[in-house]
Amino acid sequence: MPRGASQLLALPCEEPSPDVLRGDPTWQGWSRQLGPVLILAMLEHASLLRRLCAPSKGDCAKLLSLMGCKAIPYWVEAFKNASGGVMVDPCVGSWMGSNAELTRPLAPACPVTCRCREDPDQMSPSGSKVCPGTCALRGVTPGTGTNASTNTSTNDTL
Q1: Which conformational region is residue 72 in: left (phi greater than 0), alpha (psi within -120 to 50 degrees), or beta?
Q2: Collapsed DSSP state (helix, strand, coil) of residue 108
């Protein structure tokens, strides 16, 4: 198995806060890589790109650093509104639909936002799995190892 695939299998199905991601060198590297990719893909639409990256004052390279995983739902909605309804999915690496080459999928770092617990078998357009392997443990309460469906509450008798 390729080194990257084995690492993906072992990643936790948990999502770090934006503050934790800001201190993560890998996340920071992804953030720095994204800005130039978006700029090249939208050379003819620079003003639109600045609007899309408004939360980071128009600097797309800082969007992930600033927002963490919250950048995903923000980008999906902002791009849909700006493009007349084009759907994108940064979780699988599609930031601009068919208008740009694919970028790094964010699902490995943002499995909760990307709904990996509900759909652990998500695939990138290139056919690679994007969710951490630990998300495939359906029905397991995170951190407990117990099946969530067997947990009961004292209020269940009402």
Answers
A1: alpha
A2: coil
